């Protein structure tokens, strides 16, 4: 049995913590933010991702918080249908829904399903150092944590990655994106439908159902 330290309590870090525990190890998660607030917008968990959550015994906890995405339409800027995909094919093949869900709802489910005391908030990571027995993580609040191994799951501007691979930097892909989650109960959108419209000069608009009558 090994002890792990995970830097970052986002979706990736919390899911990794569940996987580590399932393998019979121990884990502590450290997050820079002082609280887990409702941030972000929506996310689509493919059927294979839902199968992975099932393997972590998390599927039944996550599933009620989202909406199955069964159709994906692609349209031009005049509203003409370019392509229609029936995503239920993947559901039948893999055995699980494709699920649209609010990121904050998913994060909260993952957080609440961990044993009490696993996640530590208000721990901004500064650096790590290798020791004779494993690794030691240093935090801006003056605290330290030791482990056999450290997992850096601290986001796009990961300080763990910056120390480990200083030349690896995010590459801007040329997109600017505005995201929101809105109440769509009055719009009478087709159940389970996600749609994306492609306009001129690379402009796009899309929506995905995320549960509770809302769309992302």
TrEMBL record:
Single GO MF descriptor: monooxygenase activity
Keyword Oxidoreductase in annotation: yes
Keyword Membrane: no
Keyword list, A-Z: Monooxygenase, Oxidoreductase
Protein's recorded name: NAD(P)-binding Rossmann-like domain-containing protein
Protein's organism: Hymenobacter mucosus
Taxonomy of the source species: Bacteria, Pseudomonadati, Bacteroidota, Cytophagia, Cytophagales
